[in-house]
Write a structure and sequence with these properties.
- By secondary structure, this protein is an alpha/beta fold.
- It has a domain at about 115-300: Ethanolamine ammonia-lyase light chain (EutC) (Rossmann fold), CATH 3.40.50.
- The chain is about 40% helix and about 15% strand.
- The chain contains ten helices and eight strands.
- The chain has a six-stranded mixed beta sheet with strand order 3-5-4-6-7-8, sandwiched between helices. It has a two-stranded antiparallel ribbon with strand order 1-2.
- Helix 7 links the parallel strand 4 and strand 5 (about 205).
- Helix 7 crosses helix 9 (about 270-290).
- It is globular.
Amino acid sequence: MLTEKELREIVESVIKELSQKDIKISTPESPQEKEVKSYPVSEDESYLPDLAEISIEEWCLVPDPADPEGLKRIKATTPARIGLWRAGPRYKLEPWLRFRMDLAAAKDAVMKEVDPKLIEELGMFTVQTMVRDKDEYLTRPDLGRRLSPEAKEKILASCQKSPQVQLIVVDGLSSTAIEANIRDFLPSFLHALKGHGLSIGTPFFIRFGRVAVMDEVGELLQPEVLVELIGERPGLVTAKSMSAYMCYRPNKSTIESDRTLISNIHDKGLPPVEAGAQVAAMVKKIYDAKMSGVKLAMAGV
């Protein structure tokens, strides 16, 4: 049986040998080999590209498709993992590694914490829901909708009462989404809001929060319109998607249909700078109509 040292020496020897030449990978279409593709070895002894930099919408590994342009058009319309070919009934190595990478990014987005330095940079203070840790956050959604007694006390002591607009930032199910979007979203939103002639209260950050935590904030501060930025549940397409929930005078009697939503705020969806302006425009509509959610939609505003 090989020792760990012997195994490492063998692997290093193979890598060194491969780094001195191009890697030839055959892609047969039939029992006879019909095509050979060459993948040049880079100086860092790695012949595979950085899979994180490959666009799924452009990545096609089907050998000699009957309609290359048609397949290209189809892939451009969806981030679904089509046209990535197979090794027998399984994924090829590169698509499988990319799948694992995207899955890991989604898990990290749920389990990581928003960087406290970012919250400090934005000039916000932090409060917490009734949730004690991530495990409880994932298993007790009800506690993520309720503020802790300490949080309520701090909010009342630190925030303006009855503002025209109140903004809260909530980690939700993707801390990555907040970190990726908030710096670009916030200046755009505040500038557009000012242009609409609306003033804002004291923004703050809520840790371990769910969407409906905005109702408790509404009860405490009684804003005309409350805006909640929250990280969306991540998937294999992106872990950076943020949502903006808006509600007219939210309170303990608020139901889900009372909320207005702009979602998919991220670099490959609705860009955060553009989203800031759109959310501000929607806040103005809600403020003027004195309604939100389904009622606002039914009014045709």
